[in-house]
Amino acid sequence: MDEERKEVIINEIKYWKTNKMLPEHYCDFLLMLYTEGEEAEKVESAATIETPSRDKKGVLLGMMLFAFISLGLTCIIIYFTSFSLLVQTLSHIFLSILVLTMAFYIKRKDLILFHILICVGALILFLGSTTSVMNFKENNLLLSLTILLNCAVWLMAGFYWRLPYLKWGGAAGILLAILFYLLT
Question: In degrees rounded to 5, what are phi and psi of residue 120?
Answer without folding.
Answer: -65, -45
